[in-house]
């Protein structure tokens, strides 16, 4: 049995809470590694936190100013000289485009690091898959992502998400919620088949736990309808009925539903509320408006109609909630379309997974020191077209 197969087998057979011990043991024994650490990206994507067992305190590394953060951002291995001839190789831990963290492996020499770099990269990928599976059975890796405690509403919202990013040859997706540790109503969801990508951008009415409960009901109603194999217009209608049946029109859920045909680039859209879509094409940002329809849950048995839109290879679609475009600066000026267009243009060279965080950082700068009074959500979709 070669050493990579042994490493893969060790990870797949390890108990969920012992993945770090398993990867550390096999890399030290079979690859002569001197030290091995696993870092998880926190909810705000500002730090990488080591996976440690309490009471041991986790180590935190900045995402934007550290060698490990460089590997995380570039999604490529990065070698750091550590003294005494040793080299620390930082490897992105990513699953189908969803960026989880970094595997850091200290090797005795640069030659040894280069010799086994390809296998270490594959081991980091296997580790990512095992971390996703392990989350079903242990809180260890979710706890590592927290530099502070989440509110209950935020706990519910993050558990709803399919991930923070994903990619396929046809497209790349990334999304981010702020304030990451206290978000309550905004959310996004996606699901892909061989030929379709469905995407929901939601903005729940209200605050705190009540907004989170509304979004939870809405997202699960949409998923239930989607998994029945019906169109997005009918998905909206069924979710509308579910929300109205529970709240009797006292609250509503704003949602933008999209169904992208991966073979043609044809996009079907139901615009039922406040989330907005902007298109970046050849460095020109254009707001894309659709026929406004009623938010979900306002009235009994509302009918919804899907509109069509076509995206071209190279297009970038950015979706934002009203917590982004409605934010006011200390002087009272709202963020608005111009500032949002500038932020989207300035991030045009970033991959889709990094765009939401970059736009939200610009939003924070615009808002100034004042505390946000609403959630902010940004989702970025890059369309490459089917090869």
TrEMBL record:
Q: Which residues form the PPM-type phosphatase domain?
A: 168-383
Pfam hit, one: SpoIIE
Q: What start-end ranges are recorded for coiled-coil regions in this protein? A: none
Key words, A-Z: Hydrolase
Single GO term (MF): protein serine/threonine phosphatase activity
Entry keyword annotation includes Hydrolase:
yes
Q: What is its EC number?
A: 3.1.3.16
Top-level enzyme category: hydrolase
Q: What is this protein called?
A: PP2C family protein-serine/threonine phosphatase
